[in-house]
Structures are given as structure tokens and as C-alpha cells.
Amino acid sequence: MLSREERTPFSEWWWTVDKPLMGAILALMLTGVILSLAASPPVATRIGLDPFHFFSRHVMFLLPSCLVLLGVSFLSPRAIRRSALIIFAASIILIVLTLAIGPEVKGSRRWITLLGVNIQASEIAKPSFVVIAAWLFAESTKRPEMPATTMALVLLMMLVTLLVMEPDFGQTMLILMVWGSLFFIAGMRMIWVFGLAGLGAAGLFSAYLFVPHVAGRIKRFMNPASGDTFQVDTAMEAFYNGGWFGLGPGEGIAKRSLPDSHTDFVFAVAAEEFGIILCLAMLALFAFVVIRTLSRAYANEDMFSRFAASGLAILFGVQAAINMSVNLQLIPAKGMTLPFISYGGSSIVSLAYGVGMMLALTRLRPRTEVEASGRADAMRSYA
Asked: How many other CB atoms are there within 10 angstroms of residue 42's CB atom?
């Protein structure tokens, strides 16, 4: 056992990190490994790959992701801000390169291959953008004369413009929702909140009018007879087949025909093979991560840590909610992974980075340390 008297970096981390939160995250990771083994072999076999191709890669990406998560959780709030700025700048450059030289797949340019690894830069941009926006909103509360809110809006418009150019409307809506939530948490006037909500609705309506891909998905959602709804219909059948306790591991039927059973529709595979009980347990884990992080964030006196942890929790929770809602036909279909459950290298590493920052920002720190960090930031800003 580690003693509280020890002053090593690991012992200090161990006694200050939120262990129940970390346990819930590790439980989600383990669930993802099990469901990847259950859902991915039929997909790999259909496209001529080794049956365990996607499972092996899922585990391969999960190992460095755990290192990223643990390493980032050791960082101080100041180091988190600096790393987020660097990673956000790098991700913006990668998104621009993707638009310029990335391959077009199904009418979109979202991936770029570097050193033999496929990278979806928009996934990497999300958590770093949330942290930078949180810092700007925190600065606006401390120094009203600083145009921090305007700077946050400019960064939002830049990122959203690049995402729309890909196009990736699912990630765009996710970023807008998280940014709007941060804007509200920061105490901005309600007229601005409603105004931004109106702009978002206008943007969605414009996408419906001028982007056939978006219009098709909304029409199929409103009227299933208007187009191909094979995947969502098969997903719903999986829920009916599984019932409360499922058909048993490996006995699922939907995964044999669902093209995206290991990514967008892994939640349906979980329902069919392990039952609604597992789905409810997963939902409880996601809810626990979000609620626990928000409660710890609001107990923090440092405004940056409070806003950043809240924004990252909302990002995590909304992404999970979107994926599960698509599986249950509650919203139009969109490509969005289920955190730590769906297959996807860029998604898992990005989530590990974001969750690592959540753990770091919710660590228990002495009041003097927080005050010293705030004074140091203020001295640098006025120097």
C-alpha cells in the first residue's frame, strides 16, 4: 500500500485521482473489448479479412490509449492548457491536409494516412478545442475587458467551417452543442444562447435544403418508406430479438448483415447478444462518468478547471447519447462512435486524451496550489 506521507508523483496522483471515475472508464474499456470480439468477426469475414482483424486492432489501439489516459491524468491544469493548444493547432493542420490530399470516401474527406496509420483529425480536434474554449470563457469571467468570448467564437467558426467542408455534419453538431453548453455554463446572457441556438437551427435547415446527404437522412428518418433504412431497421430487430437477457455471446443475427456492426451499431449487437440488461448497465456507466465529473467540476474553485472538466464531460456524454439514440431510431442516422465501445483508432485515442484531462482536472488539489496557479497565470498575462 502507498503511504500518504510519500511525496512521489505516483503517490500524489494515486491519493488525488477520482478512483470511482477511473474505475467506470476502465469498465467501459473492458466492455468495448468484449463487444469488439462479439461484433467484428462477421464484418471482417465479409470483406475478406482475418476474422479477428478488427478485434486485434481494437486491442492494439487500446494499449497506447491507456498510456495516453494515464499520462495525461498526471498533468497540471496549466500543462493541460498548453498541450491542448499544441494538439489543436496540429489537428487543424491535419484537417486542412485531409481536405487537400485525403482520399474521398462516400463523398467525404475525413481521413489522412500518415506513416501507414489512418488518422481522423476531427476526432483529435474535439477535446483540445473544448479545453481552449473553456480557458477563453474562464478568462472572460475574470477579465471582462479581454475579447475572450469573441476569440472562442472565431475558433468555433474556424473549426465548424473545416468540418462542414469535409463534410462531417455529425461532428459539427456535436461541437456546436458542447460549445453552446460551455457558453451557457460560463454565465452568458440568455439572449445570446437563444440567438446561437437559432443560428444552429438555421444552419441545419440550410444543410437540409442544400446538402442531399443530410436531406436524405432526415427524410428517411421522418418517412422510412422514402429510402434505404436497412441498418436502422436491422438494429431495431436486434433489440427485439435480444429481449432482457439476450440470445447469448456469439449468437447474434444482426451482426451477420450489418455493415457497421462493429462501429456505429455495436450498441445493437450488445442488445441482441447480451440483452437490454447490458445496455442499461452501459448507460449507467456513461451517466456515472458524466454526472461524477460534473459534480467534481462544480466543487472546483478554479474556473478553468470547472469549465474544462464540464465541457469534456458534456462532449463524452452527448457523443454516447447520439450513438445510442441512432441505434434506437430516436434521431436520424449519423456516423458517431460509442465512446470506448465502437471500433476506431482515432476515436479511442482521442477519447483517452479527453478522459485523461477529465481525470486530471477533477483531481483533489490543495487550495494553495490552485491559487498559486491562478496568480502565476495573472502575472504572465499582465507582464
From this structure: 18
